[in-house]
Amino acid sequence: MLWGRLGQRGVLLLGAIALLGGLAGGWPPGGLPGIAQDFSSSPLDSAAERELNRGLQLVQRDDLSGAIAAFREAVRLDPEFSPGYYNLGLALRQSGELQQAAEAFLRAVQTDSGFALAHGNLGAVLLEANNLPRARQYLERAIALDPRLGFAHYNLGLLHYQEGNSDEALSAFRLAQRHTDNAPEPHYYAALIYIEQGQIRRAKSALRQAISLNQNYAEAHYQLGAILLSEGDLDGALTAFRASREANPGYANAYYGAGLVFLQRGNASQAREVLEYARDRYQAQQQLQWVERTEELLRRINN
C-alpha cells in the first residue's frame, strides 16, 4: 500500500509506481498513495484508458474529485478494467472514503486476481478499518504474489503488532526494511519492539535509521529522547525532544519529555512552561491519562 499516515497510526498504502504511501517511488512518509499506472507515454487503446489517463492528470493538478469522476467513468466504460478500479481505490482512500476505497480495490482484485498491489492496498484499508482477519488474508495474498512488496510486509507487521505477536511483527518489519530502502516506518516500529524486549542498543539504532530517512519523524525523535533520558543523557534527550517539537510543533509528548529534562535539571520555571503546554495539548486531544500525569508533575512543581 502507500506509505502514508492513515486513520490507524502508521498504516501504509502503495501505488503501482509508488503507493501507503502512506502510508506510501517508494513509500512517501506522511503522503498518500502514488498512482498505479500512467499511460501518458504509451498508446491509448481504449476509451477507458483515456479516462484513466485523464484522471491521473487531474490527480497531478490536485483535482481529486475530478479524478474520482474520471476513474469511475473508466470502469463504467470497461467494467473489467482493473487499473481503473485500483486508481479509483487510491483516490477514494485519499478523500477519506474507506468503505468505497475497499470496494474499488476488491473489484481490482476480482478483475485481476494476480494484481499484487491491489491485494496489498485492500489489506491496508481493511487493517485501517480494524478488520484484521480479512486484512491478513489480502496482505498475505499480496506477499504470495510478490514477496518483494515491502509495504505489504510492513502492514502485516502492524497487524501482528496489534495482535500482540511481537516476534512475528519484528520479522515482518525486517522484511519490509529489506525490500524498501526509503521507508522510515518499519525501522520505527521495529524500535518499539526492541524497547519492549529491552534491546536498547538496537532500538536506538533503529530510531536513528528512521530519523535518517525522515528528519521530521516527530515520534522517532521523541522515542530516542525517552531512551536517552532513561540513560541519564539529559543534553541528548533535550536535543531529541526539541527535534521532535520542531518536526511537529503540536506534538504534546515532545513538550512533556522536555519538561522531564528541565525537572531533572532543577529548572522549575521552564519545566512548568512546557508541561502546561503539554497538558493543554493532551486535553485538546482527549488523552485524559496523560492530562492527569502532567497535572501531577505540575502540582509537584507548584508545591
What does this structure look like?
By secondary structure, the chain is an all-alpha fold. It has helices at residues 47-60, 64-77, 82-94, 98-111, 116-128, 132-145, 150-162, 166-179, 185-196, 200-213, 218-230, 234-247, 252-265, 268-284, 288-302; strands at residues 2-3, 21-22. It has a two-stranded parallel sheet. Helix 2 (64-77) runs antiparallel to helix 3 (82-94), helix 12 runs antiparallel to helix 13 and helix 14 runs antiparallel to helix 15 (288-302). The longest helix has 17 residues, at 268-284. It is elongated and about 75 Å long. Residues 1-9 and 15-44 have low confidence and may be disordered.
Low-pLDDT segments: 1-9, 15-44
SSE topology string: EEHHHHHHHHHHHHHHH
Strand order of the largest sheet: 1-2
Q: What is the rounded distance between the termini? A: 51 Å
Describe how the helices and strands are arranged.
Blueprint: E1 2-3, E2 21-22, H1 47-60, H2 64-77, H3 82-94, H4 98-111, H5 116-128, H6 132-145, H7 150-162, H8 166-179, H9 185-196, H10 200-213, H11 218-230, H12 234-247, H13 252-265, H14 268-284, H15 288-302
Parallel strand pairs: 1-2
A few lines on this structure:
With 303 residues, the chain is mostly helical. The chain contains 15 helices and two strands. Helix 11 runs antiparallel to helix 12 and helix 13 runs antiparallel to helix 14.
Which short descriptors sum up this protein?
single chain, 303 residues, mainly alpha, two-stranded parallel ribbon, 15 helices, 2 strands, 1% strand, disordered N terminus
